[in-house]
Amino acid sequence: MTNSTPIAGRIVNSYWVLAALLILGLLSGCGNRFEEQLRGTHQQVKTNIDHLKTQLDNKQLTNALLIKKYRRDRCVHFAVFAVTIFEDEGSDNMIFESHAHYDDEQFGSDREAILKKVRDSGVGCIINAASSMNSSRISLELAKSHEIIYTSVGVHPHDVQDMKESDLEILLAMTAFDKVVAIGEIGLDYYYDTAPREIQKLWFREQIKLAVDLDLPVIIHSREAAQDTFDILHEGNAHSVGGVIHCFSGSVEMAKRYVDLGYYLGIGGVVTFKNAKKITQVVEVIPLDRLLIETDAPYLAPVPYRGKRNDSSHLAEVIAKIAEIKGITPEEVEKVTWENGQRLFRL
Ligand SMILES: [Zn+2]
Ligand SMILES: [Zn+2]
Questions:
Q1: Which of these three, 41, 73, 105, is where a domain ends?
Q2: Whose atoms come closest to the Cα of 247: which ligand?
Q3: What is d(CA 206, CA 191) in angstroms, rounded to the nearest whole number?
Q4: Separation of alpha carbons 216 and 230, rounded Å
Q5: Contact indicator for 118, 142 with CB cutoff of 8 Å
Q6: Are 63 and 178 in a shared domain?
Q7: How far apart are CA 43 and CA 40, in angstroms?
Q8: Domain assignment of residue 1, yes or no
Q9: Ligand 2: distance of its center to the CA of 25 in Å?
Q10: pLDDT tens per residue, range 211-247
Q11: What is the CATH number of the domain that holds 263?
Q12: What is the residue range of 248's domain?
């Protein structure tokens, strides 16, 4: 035993050395192949950029490239290439999602995975907009269990039909939790008319009163009810607490009236649609410091995801479109809309 052990040890050792050499050899081979692939990709991107250069003048080129690069940076799978190709240190900005519905049953089976994807895409804050008494409860739980989620509480015009006086007291009690940052989404919807208009107006007024009493901003839903929405907000003195007209779809004149009173306008996926003339004009005219970005997820996905389930990782498309309309960088849109969200919801 004493004699054979060192020989066996030497044999075992030499096997280890051989194995190590083999692994090293394999790894360097893989490394070379990976580098070749990377070089190939670089070359392809450079050719594309050269092609673009010949087609655009300098200003267009700068914006087009910045927006292209931004879309790539915000795409997790291509992050490595983007950093290598453009030798950029990356942006420290975070995206402020001002309106999403992660309490929606469409997220029932994969909510956590989607929220992880959303965080990885650069979203640093989400306002989850409640839409009914039950949605307010679930939304509150989501805010408790997820650091980046804040919530509103309130009842959407679609759900006011069965609202009771005692519901206002329950909403009031919910606002005691410090991650409840707004009352909403509340308002009027004359497109679906799910509840009679007088009932919609009654509970819209009551919930505005609650927001003003509590000094909380409002998240407003308004569809085909522009004048009534404006009048009720004005009568209720809602501008004293501030708010956002989410998924704004009105005229430039109406946008200016809201902005003059201190409201923000929520811009979502609709701005990327081909026939979005009205909202494009609004984004052109209204200063960036009065705009918020939103998805209204799981609804209203932007191009190229139109018709699919929406989530906040698609905000990059909305940001890129606003940057294009305003002739500024997407990073600037991110930065200013982040500051706007923090200011409105007092975070
Ligand atoms: Zn809405
Ligand atoms: Zn909504």
A1: 73
A2: 1
A3: 21
A4: 18
A5: no
A6: no
A7: 5
A8: no
A9: 56
A10: 999 999 999 999 999 999 999 999 999 999 999 999 9
A11: 3.20.20.140
A12: 95-345
